[in-house]
Automatic annotation (TrEMBL):
Protein name, UniProt field: Putative glucose-6-phosphate 1-epimerase
Enzyme Commission number: 5.1.3.15
Family: Belongs to the glucose-6-phosphate 1-epimerase family.
Catalyses which reaction(s): alpha-D-glucose 6-phosphate = beta-D-glucose 6-phosphate
Biological classification of the source: Bacteria, Pseudomonadati, Pseudomonadota, Gammaproteobacteria, Chromatiales
Enzyme class: isomerase
UniProt keyword terms in alphabetical order: Isomerase
InterPro entries xrefs: Aldose_1/G6P_1-epimerase, G6P_1-epimerase, Gal_mutarotase_sf_dom, GH-type_carb-bd
Listed Gene3D superfamilies: 2.70.98.10
Pfam families the record matches: Aldose_epim
Organism whose genome encodes this protein: Allochromatium tepidum
Amino acid sequence: MDLDALNAAFALPNVLRFVEGQGGLTLIEVDNGLARATLTAHGAQVLSYRPAEARDDLLFVSERAYFAPDQEIKGGVPICWPWFGRDPDDPERIIHGFARLRDWSVPACEMRPDGAIWVRFGLADDESTRALRPHYFNLWVEVTVGATLSVSLTTRNAGDEPFTITQGLHAYFKIGDPAQTHVLGLDGCRYLDKAADAPPDAAGVQSGSLGLEAEVNRIYESVPQCLTIEDKALSRRIRIESHNSHTCVVWNPWIVGSRSMPDLDDEDYRRFVCVETVNAASEVIRVAPRQEVRIGAEYRLESL
Ligand SMILES: O=P(O)(O)OC[C@H]1O[C@H](O)[C@H](O)[C@@H](O)[C@@H]1O
């Protein structure tokens, strides 16, 4: 990407600049008084967000994450599209779709009246995407870095045939200690249990808050709009407000899972939990010709 051109168009002295990061990836560094954040055009991914008064980052990024043009980055808020989980057309394909492997363009970037920085990333179909899915599309990821962090993903069907997608904002939240972390707001929600030792069609109903004591890999259905991660070790709450999503994936790979993933440290299961705003499982989204659909989430940190 042409960093000089991006900086000439959008840089704001001491507030926003484009730099080259590890693996040659394009990074956007933001420090606007409300928060500090790092975004990358690779996958249109937020890598880091820390509000001005916060001690710790909202997000986790693995120290073993790959930073390379054709790899996904383990951490931050990966964008999963046009399939979430396994591709129903071909389960051998990369999990969670191709959007997070691509370099997105940065067509717009501005400071809002309240001082927040808004960035728009764009991606459109090309020969290689049409080889995987024969769809004509425009995608936008919009990120707002302010007193809260907002991420949204808009899909526009640019063709004449309807298509279906599943998708997700696969947020990796930093935690201080799994034993002192709970996910609140899922009480009474049905879930599909995808943990490695669960039988193929295992399901359950959440009772009370969800603690982290073993592998968790659950797809919760009909979830409320607002969920909370309470983290006593970091003395904070993370509020997650989702839009156009009624499904939430909670994932912590625990010890065996962390050890099995080359881009995670063996101990990383102690350092994050994923609480993902998704359209997945039975929540498949149909996009009619010329129609736009949007999924989004706003993340807010509060002290305990
Ligand atoms: O592809 P990754 O970023 O490693 O994420 C991988 C994980 O994502 C989701 O949370 C799924 O529910 C898990 O089954 C999967 O293992």
